[in-house]
Amino acid sequence: MKRSKPPLLLMASLAMLGATGTQASSHREAPFITSRPKVDASDFYMFRSYETGRDGYVTLIANYQPLQDAYGGPNYFFMDTQALYEIHIDNTGSGVEGLTYQFRFQDKRAGLAVTAGGKSIPVPLTNIGPITATDMSAQNVVESYTLTLVTGDRRHGTAQPIVDASTGSTSFSKPLDNIGNKSIPNYPDYANTFIHTITIPGCSTPGKVFVGQRMDGFVVNLGETFDLVNIKYPVEELAPVGVNARNSQPNSLADKNVTSLALEIPIACLTAGADPVIGGWTTASVRQAGVLNSTPESDKSEAGVGAKTSPTGPFIAGGPWVQVSRLGAPLVNEAVIGLPDKDRFNASKPKDDAQFVDYVTNPSLPILLQALFGSAGVVAPNVYPRADLVQVFLTGVPGLNQPAHVTPAELLRLNTSTPVTPIATQNDLGVIGGDVAGFPNGRRPIDDVVDVALRAEMGVLLSPMDGSATDPDPKSDASRKLHYTDGAEPNPANYLTVFPYLMTPIPGSPNGATK
Questions:
Q1: Sign of the CA dihedral 451, 452, 455, 456?
Q2: Residue 389: pLDDT band by 50, 70, 90 thresholds?
Q3: What are phi and psi of 243, to 5 degrees?
Q4: Strand 99-109 versus strand 113-116 pairing type
């Protein structure tokens, strides 16, 4: 039975984590962003903190620069000093930011050199000796950042600096990437010294911030998925007795790192009025224009090495900010939005998501999965438009995470009044696994959004499934009950139980000092 078409804005946009199912959350998901990896957002997490004694806070984590190989030196994965990274909060259900946390990065070169044959020669490395939190004399490049809170419109609202609660400084230090165990002997302790307590304008309780490299917490069987879903057991019911199909395939990101922008903010400083539901997303923007800036001959040093460089660097950027990356709910642009619109989605705002409506209400993934696995009983739901996905992933679910006054928009929604599920009893399938503190009610690092998305896309939310007169599609009942999976399951041991929750990054060299 087909349902009547809901109003255009009700079906609004693409959003859901739904038509996704099987891809990295947002890794190299659009043509343009592949040319700008420093501003490529890979994952966005938003959840009520479950560290002991911190349940009065919400943790926000925006990951950038995906697919980092730990050995990616000598320059590693510094952030773009000419980009604007932002985390937005909608606390009115309007699809428009009410609060924006802006990150701007700076780097300083120490100019370390060695004497070779009586000449001072600049070194080509990021460090020339071991680094500790108290001794950075061997560090050749130092990164820092500023953090600004904008209330109202991100470009025209009221901007106020967030400061270090201990020092009053508006500049925050950032750790080096995990070069290896000889360069940074105890990376966990070293990185922890870069967790800063922050004073937030208008907020009586301090929060926390950490920016630095982390082990990628997203779990997905990426290579086999892109190979026409070349997965041995794409459905749990197809696996032999005794085989855990959800843990039968490799996690393609198990050896990758990311750069995390992590905030922990008091709940009372995020919500507005009596409504406990907030929406969140992250964006990155670059300047509208840019030119290469070659060093003039007159600026070259007569010594031949250690040439002077332009104070503006090899690239000059100017003009207004232009958004080039956007991520709220996982997997949307990667697996929902069609190829012609991927760059446009990355440049768009949640309030304008009605323009992508057909990708949500008439998703392509179920049709593709039926074509690939129809002989195994996979049947695409024949229900259009998919109002079930609209409610769950665009407007929020009534009684779970729907704002009191909602404009459908693609963002991650969290009910901050939902009690925290202790780490030991968290279910990685979130709400469909009986854990209402998990995805899509926000998103925790442990949540297996790929499997949840697959099952949602294939109709687990369409009910009833009993062949009755109210059954929306009896022919797909059996298929909708199947437990779809990409075969890669999160391991709780791979996450921290305290802020910033994502694990210490993989080192570029596992060997310690040999002499």
A1: negative
A2: confident
A3: -95, 125
A4: unpaired
- Which token pair is 105? 């990065």
Query: Do the Cβ atoms of 88 and 122 come closer than 8 Å?
Result: no
Q: Are 175 and 213 in contact (CB under 8 A)?
A: yes
> Residues 29, 35, 37, CA angle at the centre, nearest 5°?
70
CA pair distance 245, 234, nearest whole angstrom: 8
Report how far residue 328's alpha carbon sits from residue 343's, in angstroms, rounded to the nearest whole number. Answer: 15
Tell me how far apart the alpha carbons of residues 221 and 234 are, in angstroms, rounded to a whole number: 11
- What phi, psi does 279 have (nearest 5°)? -120, 150
Query: Cβ neighbours of residue 30 under 8 Å, at least 6 residues apart?
Result: 333, 342, 343, 345, 346
Tokens representing 109?
């070169």
Are 448 and 491 a contacting pair, CB within 8 Å? no
Segment 484-505, tens digit of pLDDT: 999 999 999 999 999 999 999 9
Q: pTM score, two decimals?
A: 0.91
Q: Beta strands 141-151 and 163-164: pairing type?
A: unpaired
- C-beta separation of 334 from 27 below 8 A: yes
379 close to 475: Cβ distance less than 8 angstroms? yes
Annotate 109-122 with b (16+ C-beta within 10 A) or e (fewer): eeebeeeeeeeeee
Length of the chain (residues): 515
CB-CB neighbours of 96 under 10 Å: 17
- Record the tokens describing residue 305, joined without a space: 């090495």
> Whose structure tokens read 């201990």?
166
Burial of 340 (0-12, 13-18, 19+ CB in 10 A): exposed
Terminal Cα-to-Cα distance of the chain (whole angstroms): 73
Per the CB < 8 A criterion, the answer to whether 290 and 312 are in contact is no
Does an H or E element contain 332, and which?
helix 332-335
How many whole angstroms separate alpha carbon 336 and alpha carbon 246?
Answer: 23
CA 282/CA 101 separation, integer angstroms: 9
Q: Kindly state the percentage of the chain with pLDDT values over 70.
A: 90
Average pLDDT over residues 426-432: 97
* Nearest-5° Cα angle at 150, 214 to 277: 75
The answer to whether the peptide bond before residue 385 is cis (omega within 30 degrees of 0) is: yes
Burial tier of 367 (Cβ tally within 10 Å: 0-12, 13-18, 19+): exposed
The amino acid at 257: N
pLDDT at 113: 95
The 8-class DSSP code of residue 171 comes to -
